[in-house]
């Protein structure tokens, strides 16, 4: 009875410990527990989805940041090119102004000797050609100014888009930090549950030690009781043997008493048959023997009575011994049953301890994985913080640069306005020069006709034509000037070819850098995908182990559930086995959803196209070909 009470008490304490541990094994159906487990699994899956979305948003933010950096770099390069073009246009405008001044001076020189003989017709034609060249240069400058304005507008648009993307990435980083904080709280809850598991394991070990000590004590007490019962059984057997001996002696004495009674009855019959006379003598002679026989008979009766009493006592003692033997047998049966129950409880406790150990090992592995995920998440959080700080700094620098660029753009626009005013003034001067030139040409035409007539009349008389010294010097100077202009054009063409080669080299370098950036983006994307899958597999494995720990059922179902969950959720190996996926799995580069990338590609193609459009104008300018005058 004491062993039974102790077993029930131990079973109750173990149940209480298991209730504290939160892993009570229940083979029945518990809908509330299943509902809680379903809610926990749904919560873990939703957290995993949120983590995956956060990783995707982080990748998008990084892509947008990269695109913003590329847009910034392209904008800076385009701004530098715009500055160069502005400087080039300023130099061209200065050259055109200087040429216009020289042409006006030449025109003034030509106007002075216009009254002479018709010697200035060639100068008029050259002046017309120079005027056409100046107009072509002015048209070219106007086109370059319009292109420069378009480039500046596209640069400003790209800058504004980059600023908007940087502002949009700030709330995303805040949301990511909030999700990381929630994950930290969940990991702290898992650590608290592990502490409870450790406490329950310590209590279970203490109870196991107590149960084993109590079992040893009960075994020793049972062995002592068995020895006592065996000793009592031997004593009872000895008493039974002695009782059997006494019964045998009693049977012998009873047979002797019966013989004596038969002899006594025979003697009494013989006495009745004898006569009266002989009776007295016979009585006197047989009286001593009869007395002795009667005494022996009395003694035998007393012994028989005593033997009967002892037999009754032995029978009573035998009944008592039989009752004690039955009681001892019942106690031995109860002790055996209690021992079997204790063995069953010990086996159950051993199985429960094995289950608890396996669960504890699983929880320890889950904790290690959770710690690794916490470290990874903390590292990513720190990286995100540093990136957010760097983004803020870059945003400030970009704002400063945009302010500087705006100031430079305003300066360039003011310079462009000034140059336009100068060009308008030059155009007015050229118009005035054109009108005066038209008048001079009319006069020169009249003079030329007159001189042609005079020379024709003079050539009829002689084979030589006489010209003035001014015409001779002018023709010689024109030839030397044409030669110098041709040399300059050849040098400019060679410089333009060198610039084209340098631009081709620059384009090749940019394409190599772009290919390298694409490769780095692919490698970074593969690393991000691997990290997200590894964190998701670790998170889902932790959720599955927690779910398996709370699920009712035996260890077999739990051990079957864990590998199934691992095989279903993470087809790759565990991150601790040093098995990394090959980067050739994902070849396709992810396209960003932001319009900045599309706009940057389009703007780059536009700038290249514009440069190609600029090339023939400059080449035609240096080659000296005739271009139609497009001045309205």
From TrEMBL:
Residues 72-99, 367-436 form a coiled coil. GO terms for biological process: chloroplast accumulation movement; chloroplast avoidance movement. Keywords: Coiled coil. This is Uncharacterized protein. Belongs to the WEB family. Residues 170-179, 594-606 have a biased composition (Polar residues). Pfam families: WEMBL. GO terms for cellular component: cytosol. Transmembrane segments: none annotated. Residues 103-119 have a biased composition (Basic and acidic residues). Residues 103-122, 159-179, 271-291, 567-632 are annotated as: Disordered.
């Amino acid at each position: 009875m004491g062993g039974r009470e102790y077993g029930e008490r131990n079973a109750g304490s173990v149940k209480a410990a298991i209730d504290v541990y939160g892993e009570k094994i229940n083979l029945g159906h518990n809908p509330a527990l299943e509902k809680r487990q379903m809610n926990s699994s749904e919560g873990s899956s939703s957290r995993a989805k949120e983590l995956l979305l956060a990783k995707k948003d982080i990748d998008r933010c990084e892509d947008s940041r990269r695109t913003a950096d590329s847009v910034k770099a392209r904008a800076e390069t385009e701004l530098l090119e715009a500055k160069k073009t502005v400087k080039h246009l300023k130099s061209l405008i200065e050259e055109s102004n200087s040429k216009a001044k020289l042409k006006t001076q030449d025109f003034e020189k030509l106007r002075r000797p216009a009254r002479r003989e018709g010697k200035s017709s060639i100068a008029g034609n050259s002046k017309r050609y120079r005027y056409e060249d100046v107009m072509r240069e002015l048209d070219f400058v106007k086109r370059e100014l319009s292109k420069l304005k378009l480039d500046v507008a596209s640069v400003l648009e790209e800058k504004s888009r980059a600023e908007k993307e940087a502002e949009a990435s700030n709330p995303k980083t805040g949301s990511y930090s909030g999700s990381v904080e929630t994950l930290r709280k969940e990991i702290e809850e898992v650590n608290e549950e592990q502490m409870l598991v450790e406490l329950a394991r310590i209590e279970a070990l203490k109870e196991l030690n107590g149960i084993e000590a109590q079992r040893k004590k009960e075994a020793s007490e049972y062995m002592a009781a068995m020895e006592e019962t065996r000793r009592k059984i031997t004593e009872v057997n000895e008493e039974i043997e002695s009782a059997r001996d006494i019964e045998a002696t009693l049977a012998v004495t009873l047979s002797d008493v019966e013989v004596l009674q038969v002899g006594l009855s025979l003697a009494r019959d013989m006495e009745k048959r004898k006569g009266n006379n002989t009776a007295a003598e016979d009585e006197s002679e047989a009286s001593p023997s009869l007395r002795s026989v009667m005494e022996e008979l009395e003694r035998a009766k007393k012994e028989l009575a005593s033997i009967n009493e002892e037999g009754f006592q032995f029978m009573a003692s035998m009944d008592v011994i039989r009752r004690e033997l039955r009681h001892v047998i019942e106690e031995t049966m109860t002790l055996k049953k209690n021992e079997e129950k204790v063995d069953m409880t010990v086996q159950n406790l051993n199985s429960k301890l094995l289950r608890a150990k396996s669960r504890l090992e699983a929880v320890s592995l889950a904790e290690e994985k959770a710690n690794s995920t916490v470290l990874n998440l903390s590292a990513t959080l720190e990286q995100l913080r540093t990136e957010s700080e760097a983004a803020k700094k870059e945003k400030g620098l970009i704002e400063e640069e945009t302010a500087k660029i705006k100031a430079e753009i305003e300066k360039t626009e003011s310079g462009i306005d000034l140059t336009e005013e100068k060009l308008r003034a030059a155009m007015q001067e050229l118009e005035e020069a054109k009108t005066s030139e038209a008048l001079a040409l009319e006069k020169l035409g009249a003079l030329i006709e007159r001189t042609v007539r005079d020379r024709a009349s003079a050539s009829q008389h002689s084979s030589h034509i006489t010209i003035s010294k001014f015409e001779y010097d002018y023709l010689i100077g024109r030839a030397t000037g044409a030669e110098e202009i041709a040399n300059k054009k050849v040098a400019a063409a060679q410089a333009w070819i060198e610039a084209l080669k340098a631009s081709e080299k620059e384009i090749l370098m940019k394409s190599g850098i772009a290919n390298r950036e694409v490769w780095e983006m692919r490698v970074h994307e593969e690393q991000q995908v691997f990290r997200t899958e590894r964190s998701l597999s670790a998170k889902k494995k932790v959720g599955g182990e927690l779910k398996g720990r709370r699920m009712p059922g035996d260890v077999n179902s739990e051990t079957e559930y864990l590998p199934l969950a691992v095989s279903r959720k993470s087809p790759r190996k565990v991150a601790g086995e040093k098995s990394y996926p090959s980067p050739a799995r994902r070849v396709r580069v992810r396209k960003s959803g932001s319009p900045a990338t599309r706009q940057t590609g389009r703007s780059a193609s536009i700038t290249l196209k514009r440069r190609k459009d600029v090339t023939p104008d400059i080449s035609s300018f240096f080659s000296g070909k005739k271009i139609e005058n497009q001045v309205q």
